[in-house]
Amino acid sequence: VLIAVGRDACTRNIGLETIGVKINEKNGKVPVNDEEQTNVPYVYAIGDILDGKLELTPVAIQAGKLLARRLYGGGSTKCDYINVPTTVFTPLEYGSCGLPEERAVEEYGKQNLEVYHSLFWPLEWTVPGRDNNTCYAKIICNKRDNNRVIGFHVLGPNAGEVTQGFAAAIKCGITKELLDETIGIHPTCGEVFTTMDITKSSGQDITQRGC
């Protein structure tokens, strides 16, 4: 059983209405533009209080740093709220970076995407004889942008560690071709992303017979 208690945005009693800052009445969160600016030009908001953004501490820290640099240090870099590596630390970890497949289809159109996926069997599962083809890996590529990877998903042991490493490559604009040219470390879970050749649209079998 997974229990998500969530967070409350305590914005209704701090005087925002006095200065005219708008909030989402449904959840109390604050809508902002891509520079964390509210509808009142001199008021900014960062972190979990943002409407429609990720509730993750590292995201808030990064957004705060970049906002301070833009306001006082002559910087221009904005926080990237799309290519954020994150992990669900369930017994079988799930990690992701970039867009989920459903949102990628909405944004780019199914005809402009290629999805590669594979099941895999971690080496450490072979000795105790744990089930094969339980772990899963998927990348979503934008065909109109040189097959750039816009979504990364992995379900397996140490998914957080795997995702953190690939997140830097995604920020650098890694493509399917570059992944194919990357030499994998055998036998690791992350290696599966360097050997993917089955597309979801092909309907081919993705089950594996070994690690």
From TrEMBL:
Keywords: Disulfide bond, FAD, Flavoprotein, NADP, Oxidoreductase, Redox-active center. The keyword Signal does not apply. The keyword Disulfide bond applies. One of its GO terms (biological process) is cell redox homeostasis. Pfam families: Pyr_redox_2 (PF07992), Pyr_redox_dim (PF02852). InterPro entries: FAD/NAD-bd_sf (IPR036188), FAD/NAD-binding_dom (IPR023753), FAD/NAD-linked_Rdtase_dimer_sf (IPR016156), GSHR/TRXR-like (IPR046952), Pyr_nucl-diS_OxRdtase_dimer (IPR004099). GO terms for cellular component: cytosol; mitochondrion. Belongs to the class-I pyridine nucleotide-disulfide oxidoreductase family. Residues 84-196 form the Pyridine nucleotide-disulphide oxidoreductase dimerisation domain. Its cofactor is FAD. Residues 1-64 form the FAD/NAD(P)-binding domain. This is TRXR3 reductase. One of its GO terms (molecular function) is flavin adenine dinucleotide binding.
